[in-house]
Amino acid sequence: MSQSKFVSALNEQIAYEFGASQQYIAVAVHYDDETLPRLAAFFYRQAVEERNHAMMMVQYLLDAGEPVTIPAVEAPKCGFADTVEPVALALAQERRVTGQINALAAAAREGGDYAGEQFMQWFIKEQVEEVSSMSDLLKVVERARDNPLLAEEYLAREATGEAADATAPAAAGGAL
After folding, report:
1. pLDDT, tens digit, for every residue of 68-122?
2. Kind and range of the H or E element at 161?
3. What is the pLDDT of residues 32-59, one digit of tens each?
4. What domains does the chain contain, in order, with CATH numbers?
5. Distance of CA 89 to CAs 33, 114, 134, Å?
6. How far is C-alpha 14 from the chain's CA centre?
7. What gap in Å lies between CA 105 and CA 8, rounded to an integer?
8. DSSP letters for 59-121
9. Do 48 and 99 meet the contact criterion of CB atoms below 8 Å apart?
10. Closest CA to 43 of 64, 24, 61, 58
11. For a Cys-Cys bond, which of 17, 36, 111, 128 suits 54, CB 3.0-4.6 Å?
12. What are the CA-CA distances from residue 70 to residues 55, 58, 84, 115, 138 (Å)?
């Protein structure tokens, strides 16, 4: 595999994934500061998940013998007007990432990089779940705008212990 459009775009995506992780930390800190521990915990978990997505991409490039660029990331938005704005931002971010992931899969296909295309399939599935989850949470926080403790109650009630996805690509650094 040579330095292709797909490899370049995947290196760019690493920055987006690390940026998403940072944004989710900023959202979690906002909710922590507002004494909304369930919303904070939800976004702290999302931050780790996004970081792991970046590390999966790093591991793929290492395995493929391709160069890896660990980029600087843009500073996240830290101030929010209410409890709804951070979730709306997160949903917009997940929708943007979905477009980026689809473009990566298309670049791999167009470049005849079948391993790259196969690698992206897990991320395509993951983005469907991410957009769905964030859409549901946005509906809840919008309804609970005047009483964010109702959103906390929803998260406590609906929380499931997510098992590790055995189909997920390996992340560089293992299970850190």
Report:
1. 999 899 999 999 999 999 999 999 999 999 999 999 999 999 999 999 999 999 9
2. none
3. 999 999 999 999 999 999 999 999 999 9
4. 5-157 (1.20.1260.10)
5. 18, 33, 10
6. 11
7. 13
8. HHHHHTT--------PPPP---SSSSHHHHHHHHHHHHHHHHHHHHHHHHHHTT-HHHHHHHH
9. no
10. 24
11. 17
12. 10, 9, 32, 22, 32
Per-residue tokens: 83: 């409890």
Q: Which amino acid is at 114?
A: Y
- Residue 142 CA to residue 144 CA, distance in Å, equals 5
Whole-prediction pTM value? 0.90
Q: What is the chain's alpha carbon radius of gyration, rounded to the nearest angstrom?
A: 17
* pLDDT, the chain, mean: 93
> CA 114, CA 108: separation in Å to the nearest integer?
7
